[in-house]
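Can anyone check this?
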Amino acid sequence: MTARKQAADVPPQDWLLDPVRFHGEWEGGALGTGICVIANRIDGAGGGPRLHRHPYAETFVVRSGTGRFTLGDRQIELGAGHILVVPPDTPHKFSNVGPEPLETIDIHENGAFITEWLE
């Protein structure tokens, strides 16, 4: 007999550092999923993570604001509603263009975060 997989509900207080600002991160491997999620809110222009890469793809969903995304030697600006898929092992970073907050949902295609910081 095959075991049934059950749905898992992860309440906001278990992963969001600040539910009002919708900011936090979650690793899904413990629940048997192959993804991790980061909810980012970057209030000030210029803020964002340093250059890094992952051995798996990362998908960004821009919820609000405008972000400048660097992928290798390429830069693009994306606004609300855009989806960007960064291939595995691609150096990338992003920053808030401003003046409003940049909100993204970042989906890592792995059950645990693996990040190599490059700067």
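Reply from J.R.: I decoded it. The longest strand covers residues 36-42.
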